[in-house]
Batch of 2 targets.
Target 1
Amino acid sequence: MGSVTDTANMGSVTDTTNTESGKKVTVIFVLGGPGSGKGTQCTNIVQNFGYTHLSAGDLLRAEIKSGSENGTMIQNMIKEGKIVPAEVTIKLLQKAIQESGNEKFLIDGFPRNEENRASFESIVRLLRIVPEIVLFFDCSEEEMEKRLLNRNQGREDDNIETIRKRFKVYMESSLPVIQYYGNLGKVRRIDAAKPIDVVFEEVKAIFEKVDA
Ligand SMILES: Nc1ncnc2c1ncn2[C@@H]1O[C@H](COP(=O)(O)OP(=O)(O)OP(=O)(O)O)[C@@H](O)[C@H]1O
Ligand SMILES: Nc1ccn([C@@H]2O[C@H](COP(=O)(O)O)[C@@H](O)[C@H]2O)c(=O)n1
Ligand SMILES: [Mg+2]
């Protein structure tokens, strides 16, 4: 997305569909419940299909670490399992997109609620970028809870109290976004309860079609 210019103001994103090299920008949203395996499978997709993986959660956690003025607000929201205002998250995504030099993006954990979706769409409408497809990692709460409690990555939100809050936000705010894209025929549902390599076989079949 080399020709997308943003003068630190989301309203001033230049209207362009293609990069300066004339290549098409591909955006794939990666959605699913907490612990469904989005990050794990994105790592596999990057290795096999040349996408840049942008995890909204990872970008927000990096923003906390950077000591930014929004850090405390973001940290408090993550601890409570709440969704950070889209304005903040989209700025981080835009910066990462610009810095990547790539044209193919997996946007993981975004849009997470209606406000995320509507804000993103109002910006990308200018760019005429629409998500190619939405990968939906579908997994039971029981399995996701087990995975999160065993993740051991030192995440402040991987405790049972916050996990329950994240599940509630997922059911109430994130699933409707998946349904929205489902109504547009964009959702590719994946049975994420299976072992990692089996899930990736299903993912691979989808990407082979996208890249065809
Ligand atoms: N198919 C799978 N079977 C068993 N364990 C898995 C599977 N996929 C991922 N895991 C493990 O579950 C944990 C959560 O996976 P991951 O971090 O990829 O989930 P996520 O969807 O990105 O979660 P979050 O939304 O919290 O970031 C990790 O410890 C990972 O190794
Ligand atoms: N669009 C988003 C994505 C994430 N968050 C916050 O980060 C937390 C962790 O997200 P993961 O995808 O890494 O699980 C999430 O619970 C939210 O608090 C957000 O606000 N907006
Ligand atoms: Mg993740």
Target 2
Amino acid sequence: MKLNEIISILPFYKAMYAVEDVFVNEIKMDSREVNQGDLFICINGFTVDGHEYIDQAIANGAAAILVEKAVDTNIPTILVPDSSRALAMIAAHFYHYPTTKFPLIGITGTNGKTTITYLVEKILNECNWKTGIIGTIQMKIGNRLFPVQNTTPDSLFLQKSFHKMVEYNVDTAIMEVSSHALDMGRTYGCDFDVAVFSNLSQDHLDYHKDMNDYLRAKSLLFSQLGNTYRKTHPKFAVINVDDPSHDMIKRSTAQHIITYGCNTEAAIMATDVELKANRTIFTLNTQVGEISVSSMLIGMFNVYNMLAAVGVAMAFHIPLGTIKSALEKITGISGRFEPVGGDQPFTTIVDYAHTPDSLENVLQVIKEFAKKNIYVVVGCGGDRDKTKRPQMAAIALKYANKVIFTSDNPRTEDPSAILEDMVNGQMEKHYEIIQDRRQAIYRVINLASDDDVVLIAGKGHETYQLIGHTKYQFDDREIARQAILSKGK
Ligand SMILES: CC(=O)N[C@H]1[C@@H](OP(=O)(O)OP(=O)(O)OC[C@H]2O[C@@H](n3ccc(=O)[nH]c3=O)[C@H](O)[C@@H]2O)O[C@H](CO)[C@@H](O)[C@@H]1O[C@H](C)C(=O)N[C@@H](C)C(=O)N[C@H](CCC(=O)O)C(=O)O
Ligand SMILES: Nc1ncnc2c1ncn2[C@@H]1O[C@H](COP(=O)(O)OP(=O)(O)OP(=O)(O)O)[C@@H](O)[C@H]1O
Ligand SMILES: N[C@H](CCC[C@H](N)C(=O)O)C(=O)O
Ligand SMILES: [Mg+2]
């Protein structure tokens, strides 16, 4: 695309050097990835300032650069007030507004986003729709998998990926939308058709200044819903009305609302809920009828996740029978309440609970069904909300007979300082601290005997441990399996 066509969508800019005949091959925001003929967009990040890498981008062959600070260059340079915003608009334009070509579903909330994404995928696949997914575990286009660095990647990665989805002819795309992404504008330029709100509880107070600010960020998905009119079908906000924050979310959108819940009157409700150790049965009540559902997903929180997915299905007029058959086929979601092992006389569960609310939810389910002792291995991530550390520790101690506190992803923090934040001031003392996560898992598996339940929380599907800036190969499920095999040898 020609540079002057790319910048034609920007309301304000100042161009230095002639831009008329410059052809742009690709858009890049990382100087290390720039190739001959690319447009390099300088982003002032949290760690470094992209403007510092202009020379490298030029040496790699950049045809032009876009900046938000005056710089001295000898190639076509575009100066804008805000290069992150410009990047989002330019990326959408460069890739021909891919999200106007299929319905886009965005899912936000503190817990349940990944789970709901895969439930929605299953329902849509049941209708033989081709789907694309972007979220915590990976990007998935049809059956092709791609790694992602963030739950919601930056605007350039997003628009490029949606373009791939158009090429693959997806019928719809489903994505998790994190509060960070909304706050940083990674989803500017996305044309959402359905937005889901699952719940709000404490997390990310390292980034958001308080819970109100966190909620404000979440609400941006709903104010962004339907702000373009390229698509003709109606837009929907799917909202959990049992969550105390639902009202603020409702007030953030001018679009149609589909409510769901169990305790408050809603368009979609679950009644006669039977929570069993290996199954969840409920009556699904909707405005088009009711049907019974028997799911292999465990726990009340998964009833809510299923209702959210039903809300999305309702926005697309998917028949109840199809929804039921999809929900009943799902055996589980990677790293979410995932059983490990098989023949051992105790139960081992790996779960991605890394917030106080999710840990409490999962432990409530385990408490309900555990016949004997409950053992928990848990830690907290470094460079993340410190205030959740003592809360998660207290929750683990409240439900478990013994807790092994260990490292999660310490990142750049001292692992022993994170553990100190967790245990400092705890009244209950039935815990051990084993910083090395592998040893902690071996210890807990050795402790377990007949009919006990072991919960290994926090890392779920993750296949690495991030210590300092290094990613080490690490998978809780793999280590737990090895520990079970070697137990008693
Ligand atoms: C705090 C934060 O969100 N940081 C994100 C941000 O990184 P950053 O601002 O530090 O980037 P930077 O390293 O300063 O680089 C600035 C610019 O210089 C460029 N650069 C850099 C080096 C170089 O040699 N040349 C060069 O051009 C970079 O490409 C970039 O354009 O931009 C990066 C690229 O988009 C993100 O990957 C990164 O997410 C980091 C990894 C992260 O951990 N983010 C977390 C907090 C996050 O966003 N989490 C939410 C999920 C939360 C949840 O749901 O629980 C998420 O959506 O993932
Ligand atoms: N609706 C829910 N309410 C509370 N806890 C939940 C809910 N759904 C799942 N959980 C718990 O939260 C954990 C994470 O679930 P999931 O990965 O679906 O959430 P997420 O919102 O995608 O998380 P992330 O913010 O890391 O992307 C699960 O392993 C489970 O312990
Ligand atoms: N999306 C969450 C994931 C946390 C997972 C946990 N294992 C950790 O590293 O803290 C975050 O980036 O805060
Ligand atoms: Mg997720």
